[in-house]
Specification:
Elements lengths: L7 H5 L2 H33 L2 H27 L14 H30 L6 H28 L3 H30 L4 H28 L5 H14 L6 E10 L2 E10 L5 H16 L6 E9 L28 H4 L6 E3 L5 E4 L2
Parallel strand pairs: 2-3
Antiparallel strand pairs: 1-2, 4-5
Helix pairs in contact: 2-3, 2-5, 3-4, 3-6, 3-7, 4-6, 4-7, 5-6, 6-7
Length: 354
């Protein structure tokens, strides 16, 4: 699952406060989910609708997933230690996989029950009450889902985003149930009810699969183009003379935090202290922006006079070609091995950089 950069407000918020807000959002989801579960089961008892039962079964998954989310967020908020040097944030991907699996399991149950109802024939009653309760529960779920996704993106929590998407899927389920029951009420054709439940189950199956797929990508440290493009843009925006090129850029997410590293070409005649100070300043500037909440580690490479034409360092004593203009950092170059030709002291091209 892909998360957008932090907003400026959240970038300056203390991590402890952010962790507390994430857990609070999960608790809100748990309490509201439990209340809506009760409402939906009341609607099912009074109507006997398999579509409403499918909606209630999904709400059970909502409650279980919210419980797991509270645990996962509390665990993820623990600081890095010797056994977990990158922190505990990866638990959020496990939480999202767990929730996606629960959604898929609920989909199987719903499809099975809907087929059984089609075979034996549905018996419905008090559809007006069922419609009213389902509409009310769906409206609350829509608001809750948007709230959770907003909080998840604001605080970079895949758990809250996954929970919010699940709640919005529950809202879609409720909408499908309302349409199905409305058609039954208008036409008197009772088999529309289990057919609506069947469609709901199939839709939930796809939702669960997407959540599992996105979370698995995070567990396997799948490349995140949006994150890498944001980092490259910030590196370009904050570069200073002497920061010549960037390559071998990599980044992974661990819950709320991002861990990134890169190789930086600097002038070959710089001392270790000069190179350390320059890349340290670049690191501080990038970490002060909303693009990265975590750590950034640089490895320094000597320029080997390969970039004279694009190096804007004044008074360079080893320059072998005149400065022609600054070349902005680009994502394709930043994530790759350097393949530019090196120049010898006479200005001729030699082998590509290692």
């Amino acid at each position: 699952m892909t998360l957008p950069p932090l907003s400026p407000d959240s970038a300056t918020a203390p991590s402890g406060a952010s962790d507390g807000l994430r857990v609070r959002a999960a608790l809100v989801s748990l309490v509201i989910g439990a209340a809506l579960l009760g409402v939906k089961f009341v609607a099912y008892v009074h109507t006997g609708s398999s579509a409403i039962l499918s909606d209630a079964l999904e709400s059970i998954i909502n409650v279980v997933a919210a419980l797991f989310a509270v645990f996962g967020l509390r665990f993820a908020s623990q600081p890095a230690d010797q056994e977990h040097p990158y922190g505990h944030g990866k638990i959020e991907y496990f939480s999202a996989v767990f929730e996606g699996g629960l959604i898929a399991f609920a989909a199987v149950l719903i499809v099975w029950y809907a087929i059984a109802e089609l075979i034996r024939g549905p018996e419905l009653a008090r559809l007006e009450l069922g419609l009213a309760l389902t509409v009310a529960a769906g409206a609350v779920n829509a608001l809750l889902g948007w709230y959770l996704i907003g909080e998840g993106r604001r605080h970079r929590s895949i758990t809250l985003v996954a929970d919010g998407k699940h709640v919005l899927a529950d809202f879609q389920t409720s909408a499908g149930v309302v349409v199905g029951l409305g058609l039954v009420r208008l036409t008197g054709i009772s088999w529309i009810d289990p057919v609506a439940a069947l469609l709901v189950g199939v839709n939930l199956g796809f939702t669960g699969w997407r959540l599992v797929r996105e979370a698995a990508g995070g567990l396997l440290d799948e490349g995140d183009p949006q994150l890498l493009n944001g980092l490259v843009a910030e590196l370009e925006r904050n570069r200073t003379p002497g920061i010549i090129r960037v390559h071998r850029l990599r980044a992974i997410r661990s819950g709320r935090e991002t861990h990134a590293d890169a190789h930086v070409f600097v002038p070959e005649f710089w001392t270790v202290e000069q190179a350390h100070d320059a890349v340290g300043e670049l690191e501080r500037r990038v970490l002060a922006t909303p693009a990265l909440d975590g750590e950034l580690v640089f490895h320094v490479d000597p320029c080997q006079r390969a970039f004279c034409a694009s190096c804007d360092l004044p008074a360079c004593p080893v320059r072998v070609a005149p400065y022609e203009g600054r070349v902005p950092f680009a994502i394709d170059e930043a994530i790759a091995e350097p393949r530019l030709p090196l120049a010898d002291e006479s200005g001729g091209a030699t082998a590509p950089a290692p």
